[in-house]
Each structure stands twice: as structure tokens, then as C-alpha cells.
Design goal:
Elements lengths: L1 H4 L17 H41 L5 H13 L3 E10 L9 E9 L3 E6 L5 H8 L7 E6 L13 E2 L5 E4 L12 H6 L9 H17 L16 H13 L5 E5 L7 H14 L4 E5 L3 H4 L5 E6 L3 E4 L5
Helix pairs in contact: 2-6, 6-7, 7-8
Bound molecules: adenosine-5'-triphosphate.
The site of adenosine-5'-triphosphate has 10 residues, from helix 4.
């Protein structure tokens, strides 16, 4: 609820040259002025909503005052332990067109919302292929990828919905190889609509943009920098921001630590730890030890594209 009511409170991103051909530069600076006024109004609104929600919660706790403490804790923690599942992959087979061998065989997995899944296994076993299917870049030969909602009682509360590619952000291995713009700002806004949109839409996009930039810690650098001049860690932050601006529900990452020095690796692990609080993340990686503290579920992919749920072998 707060995310709708409160506009960004931090000073907006550094914009050294406003007279750029990128339309989002102008709109983001307009947002800077209007957001201050909006912030004041929204803060009052927020305090009101918060006080109503807290008085309701206190009332609920009072009414449960005679029930055992564990039950009351269940009430408080319900959102954290909700069995709601986001990703539900069922019996995926994949055979590239014109070939006779399945790269993936009956792959099934479920990954709960806001959890961190990791797929590990031998090179060439089909891990990247699976991520590409989840991101909608390739279609499975058979099987489906769903989002399935569950009630608190653990029963499906709606028919499964096919996962649409717009809900998935994918960061490829060595994403910096795919940068196309000559400054960070244009790189992030590259995929955003350029046609004439109304002011509200532009403001919405500017807010998304600012959130993405802030959430990966790119707000400390000049957005006029050439992406290729950034350090390894910052290039990875940029690659994540490019996806986050689309507000994905699921983020899939292929070898997020590959090719980075120890400091940049630690930075990316820290960043993923923060992102995990907001997003469901599925990673393919050989860096089991460094990512292990984040992992909620893991699977081994064996040659022949067979996936088995398994603890990390560390
Ligand atoms: N379109 C295709 N046609 C034929 N073979 C393919 C195709 N795409 C991938 N492959 C092969 O499928 C196998 C699985 O590739 P994939 O990249 O998914 O493996 P991986 O487990 O991610 O490997 P790594 O850990 O080295 O990244 C490889 O042997 C690859 O050469």
C-alpha cells in the first residue's frame, strides 16, 4: 500500500544534461518539483492509513488475547509463511527444432514468492536453456510454466495462470556484453516506450526508473557515464536496473558472479540479498558457497536435462 502512496523521498538521480533527446530526462526533472508537494500530501495520507491499519491490528490481537501465544504469532507472521507459490513449472520437455534429442526432460519445479532458488549442475546439462524457457525466449516442446496462487490453507485459490514473459526479468551471463547505449541513462531507458504518452504515464515511468536506479545503488554515479567505463560490479548493477525498471515479479539470473573480482562478487551478493526482500529470484550458478546464504530451494540439473531437488553440496 505504501508504495502507491509515497513517492520517492530521496533526491532524484543526478541529471547533468537535461537537454537530451531522451524524453525521460525532462520528465524526471519535472517529477522532482511535483514530487515534493506530492510527498507532503502522501505522507499525511500514509500516516492516516497506517494508524487505521494499526488500530485494526491491535483490535485483532486483543480479540485473540485468550488464544495460545503460538497462534497469535501465526497471525502476525502469516504473510511471511504464506504458502502462496509464484512459479510452477510442470513437466517441461524441450527439443530444439530440427534435433532428435531432448535438452530438457520432464522438468518440474515450484518456487514460492519472494524466495531464492538456485539450479546447479554440470556444464552443458541444460540450465541456461531452462532459464530461457522461463523468460519466454523459447517455447517448451511440451509442458507449461504457470503462476499458481494458493490460499493460506494450502489449496489452489484460482486456476493456474500461464507465466507471461513480461513478468520475468532475465540477466544473461556477462550481461555487459549486450550493452547498447553510450551512457547509463539511455541504457536503462532503452526498452521503455518512446512514443507520446500522457504525463501520468511518464511520471509513473520516471518513478519506476528512479526506484530501479536507487535499488541497485546506481544513484551515486553520473548517469552520463559510458556503461563500458563502469567497474565490473557496477556493470552488473546496471544490468539488474535494466530489468528492474520493468517491474518483474520473477528475476532469473545466469551466473551472476561470473567474471567478477572478489569485491564485486561480494557487492552483487549483498545486492541480491536486498532484492530478495522484494522479488522471487531464480539463479543458475557454479558459485555455490557464495550464494548459499541466500538459497531457499536448490536443484541439481543432470546431463540430459533432468532436474532433481537437492541440497547444495557444500
Ligand atoms: N538450439 C540448440 N540446438 C542444439 N543444441 C543446443 C541448442 N541450445 C543449446 N544446445 C546445447 O544444449 C546443451 C545445454 O546447454 P545450456 O547452455 O543450457 O547448458 P548449461 O547447463 O547452462 O551449461 P553451462 O553451465 O556451461 O552454462 C549444450 O550442450 C548446448 O550446446
Amino acid at each position: 500500500m505504501t508504495s502507491f502512496l509515497i513517492p520517492p523521498c530521496r533526491p532524484l538521480v543526478k541529471l547533468p544534461r537535461l537537454a537530451s533527446s531522451n524524453p525521460y530526462r525532462q520528465i524526471i526533472s519535472l517529477t522532482e518539483v511535483s514530487s515534493k508537494l506530492f510527498q507532503l500530501f502522501a505522507s499525511i495520507q500514509f500516516i492516516f492509513v497506517l494508524s487505521v491499519s494499526w488500530s485494526r491490528r491491535i483490535e485483532h490481537l486483543r480479540s485473540h488475547a485468550t488464544t495460545p501465544v503460538s497462534k497469535r504469532c501465526t497471525f502476525i507472521d502469516r504473510t511471511a509463511t504464506s504458502p502462496f507459490k509464484l512459479l510452477d513449472i510442470r513437466d517441461i520437455k524441450y527439443r530444439p527444432p530440427g534435433t532428435q534429442i531432448n535438452l530438457l526432460n520432464d522438468v518440474t519445479l515450484t518456487l514460492p514468492k519472494k524466495s531464492f532458488g538456485m539450479i546447479f549442475g554440470r556444464s552443458g546439462s541444460g540450465k541456461t536453456t531452462l532459464l530461457q524457457l522461463i523468460a519466454g525466449l523459447t517455447k517448451p516442446t511440451s509442458g507449461s510454466i504457470y503462476i499458481q496462487g494458493y490460499s493460506d490453507e494450502g489449496t489452489p485459490n484460482q486456476p493456474p495462470v500461464l507465466l507471461s514473459p513480461e513478468r520475468v526479468g532475465i540477466v544473461f551471463q556477462f550481461p555487459e556484453r549486450y550493452f547498447v547505449a553510450d551512457n547509463v541513462f539511455d541504457e536503462i531507458t532503452f526498452g521503455l516506450p518512446r512514443q507520446k504518452t500522457d504525463l501520468t504515464t511518464k511520471q509513473l515511468i520516471a518513478t519506476r526508473l528512479e526506484r530501479a536506479i536507487t535499488s541497485v545503488g546506481l544513484n551515486g554515479i553520473s548517469l552520463d557515464k559510458n556503461p563500458n567505463s563502469l567497474s565490473g560490479g557496477y556493470k552488473r548493477r546496471l544490468a539488474l536496473a535494466i530489468q528492474l525498471v520493468q517491474i518483474p515479479e520473477l528475476l532469473v539470473l545466469d551466473e551472476p558472479l561470473a567474471g567478477l573480482d572478489w569485491k564485486a562478487r561480494a557487492d552483487v551478493v549483498k545486492l541480491l540479498t536486498d532484492l530478495k526482500k522484494e522479488l522471487t529470484i531464480l539463479v543458475v550458478s557454479h558459485d555455490l558457497k557464495e550464494l548459499a546464504p541466500l538459497v531457499d530451494k536448490s536443484w541439481r540439473m543432470d546431463v540430459g536435462g533432468v532436474l532433481m531437488e537437492e541440497r547444495l553440496p557444500i
